[in-house]
Amino acid sequence: MLHRRVFLQMAAAASAALADKERKIPKYKVVSPYQPAAQPGMPGPYPGRVASIHAEKSIDEATQKPDPGVVREMMTRGMRELTGDADVRDAWARFITPSDVVGIKVNCSGAPDIFSSPVVVAEIVRNLMVIGVKPDAIWLYERFSQQLQSAHYERYLPEGVHYWTAETAWDGATKRGSAKAYDPATYVEVKLYDEDDARSNISRPVSGTFTKIINVPNVKDHGAAGVTGCLKNIAFGSFANVSRAHDGTDTHTYSFVGTLAAVEPLRSRTVLHVMDGLRGVWHNGPFSDVPRYWFYPKRMLFGTDPVAIDRLLIEIIEDKRKAEHALSIWDRSPKYLGTKEDHQNNPNINDFVREPGHVEYAAQLGLGVYELDKIKVGHSEV
Q1: 62 in a domain, yes or no?
Q2: Hey, which of 122, 213, 326, 368 would disulfide with 156, CB 3.0 to 4.6 Å?
Q3: How far apart are CA 264 and CA 275, in angstroms?
């Protein structure tokens, strides 16, 4: 017998999927001189496979401090579960070689509150060094220097690691930023609304410096995209002029996120996703500056398939919102739209018509597996 809650979830998802199919997709022009790898990093060698590691002692909710020893064990379990290797060094060596230049895409939009934990990032860097990658071949990157600086990764990482940002500070109006930071030959051109600048160029290090990329997103709600996970972090964080996806209460994140993520060489070079779900935000994301909307999944997700991980993320956020009696992220009703202030103060008000369907759209572009019954999740408890 089908449980009523499950039935309602399925009905809401089916209704949203139908609405997604009725959308008009903008006409995208993708320009890139880069060819895909024989096996692009997304969805990579493990499509539809996710390692999910939970540890109750991974973070102290009172102090907000993760436990480095527990995080190390979670990382070891996750990589072994994903690859099937007995030795975690072999697991890392499947993705990275000592000669690689590795970009680590952190998520600092919620810093200094909820962002890619320095403890998690430090453990990734430690494992890279164990398999022979030198610190000066490791780059943390983000769009805005103000956000990256507030995370203080330098307190946790060895000397020699690079920190790169494309622009100075996000002010809500930043578009293309410095031409020096972006590759003029690799871009997506599309007129989403009436914006003057219809081009989004890829970051120069993504196309010209990094040979491999590791994506480290968070468990986050997002007012426009529904959730901000692997896909949105790697897409919007690697291109210029992405805030133009929003206009009023409308957003084109449904198709824009996946379109950017699929651009070469970003798609081929992004070989691993490590979702930091030690803590997260279930409403008013992604900036997460209201503590009552924070929660503690105490979980990390590992995979090469960003769609599969983000599909699980949707469930995590949706379940938490239901527990808090908040509006479903699938709800598209205009009657629940309000101002940003209304949205911040009330989890039953949206400031955009949310687009969690962007995850399924990315699957249609070949970036991964969306259907829950086709996703194989390896669970482990630390």
Answers
A1: yes
A2: 122
A3: 22
Long-range contacts, stretch 333-341, CB < 8 angstroms, 24+ apart: 334/249, 337/249
Residue 18 lies in a domain: no
Half-sphere exposure of 217 (CA within 13 A, CB side): 30
- Pairing assessment for the beta strands 49-54 and 376-381 based on DSSP bridges: parallel
The verdict on residue 1 lying in a domain is no
CATH for 105: 3.40.50.11440
Q: Encode 289-323: b = buried (16+ Cβ within 10 Å), e = exposed.
A: eeeebbbbbbbbbbbbbbbbbbbbbbebbbebbee
Q: Is residue 213 part of a domain?
A: yes
Q: What pTM does this model have?
A: 0.92
> How many angstroms separate the CA atoms of 352 and 330, rounded?
12
Whole-angstrom distance, CA of residue 1 vs CA of residue 249? 39
In which domain, by residue range, is 127 found? 31-381
Average pLDDT value over all residues in the chain:
92
**Where in the chain does DSSP place strands (E)?**
29-31, 49-54, 59-60, 65-66, 102-106, 138-144, 162-167, 182-189, 199-203, 212-216, 218-222, 226-227, 246-247, 250-251, 270-281, 294-295, 299-303, 376-381
| SS3 (DSSP) at 345 | helix
* Residue bearing tokens 């399924």: 360
Per-residue DSSP letter, 337: B
- CA 126/CA 214 separation, integer angstroms: 14
- Rounded to whole angstroms, the Cα distance separating 358 from 245 reads 13
Q: Is the dihedral of CA 121, 168, 262, 35 positive or negative?
A: negative
Collapsed DSSP state (helix, strand, coil) of residue 50: strand
The structural domain count of the chain equals 1
How far from 88 is each of 69, 80, 103, 272, 274, CA to CA, in Å?
15, 6, 20, 14, 15
Q: pLDDT tens, 194-239?
A: 898 999 999 999 999 999 999 999 999 999 999 999 999 999 999 9
Query: Is residue 239 helix, strand or coil?
Result: strand
Asked whether the beta carbons of 272 and 306 are under 8 A apart, the reply is no
Q: Over the stretch 58-109, which tens digit does the pLDDT of each residue have? A: 999 999 999 999 999 999 999 999 999 999 999 999 999 999 999 999 999 9
